[in-house]
Amino acid sequence: MDNTTTEDTSDTEEEILVYAEFADSVNIEKYNSMHILGIDTKTPIVQMNETFFTGTYENPLGTYMFFENDTSPQSTDPVFDRIPEKNVKYVCKTRKLLKVEHGYITPKDGSGQSTQNQAQQAQEDAIKMVSFKTVQEALDKFKQEWCTNESSSTDNNINNLKES
After folding, report:
1. Are 89 and 137 in a shared domain?
2. Residue 124: inside a domain
3. What is the tens place of the pLDDT at every residue in 90-139?
4. Measured between alpha carbons, how far is 48 from 31 in angstroms, rounded to an integer?
5. Phi, psi of 125 (to 5 degrees)
6. Which range of residues forms the domain containing residue 160?
7. Fewest beta carbons less than 10 Å away: which of 3, 26, 37, 68?
8. Residues 6 or more apart from 105 whose CB is under 8 A from it?
């Protein structure tokens, strides 16, 4: 029996703090659950309950700092230091900014039919290739189509151009 040592292959996690700024006024406290899909991509998707948001990373102008309420403020000099009514203490900082806005999802109705319709529309819009044996044949064909689309005065202009 061979004695081999196995390495501990546990997943490593890296914790990065991201500041998310919502374009619309969103009351985050009314949502029960939050899921972030593709946080490591350029455009993550945030789902809060049944509402979807799309985000993009931007470079902030400075550093975002996070504070929390300090329940036990300390004073170094009790005689001259006044303790303010609200005290906060530094928690952490980040330079990651995620701008988030509402994302709207539309269902695909008859996706098989829509691709067929798109292909048919593309065929109708395509320019048909035409080949002529001589320049005179091309001019005659152009003149014939032009005359059906334009008035007789335009036809006279083509004749004048041909003669000159």
Report:
1. no
2. no
3. 999 999 899 999 887 677 665 555 556 666 666 666 666 667 788 888 88
4. 6
5. -80, -15
6. 131-164
7. 3
8. 52
The answer to whether 56 and 98 are in contact (CB under 8 A) is: yes
Tell me the pTM: 0.49
Residue with tokens 């975002």: 64
Residue 57 lies in a domain: yes
89 phi-psi bin (left φ>0, alpha ψ -120 to 50, beta other): beta
Q: β-strands 64-69, 51-58: how paired?
A: unpaired
Integer CA distances (angstroms), 105 to 1, 16, 21, 56, in order: 58, 28, 21, 17
Residue whose pair of structure tokens reads 């593309």 in the numeric block: 122
End residue of a domain, out of 83, 102, 121: 102
In a domain, 7, yes or no: no
d(CA 55, CA 99) in angstroms, rounded, equals 5
Q: Which residue has the tokens 């609200």?
A: 86
Asked if 55 and 36 count as a contact pair (C-beta separation under 8 A), the reply is no
**What's the structural domain count of the chain?**
2
Question: Among 121, 69, 118, which Cα is nearest to 90's?
Answer: 69
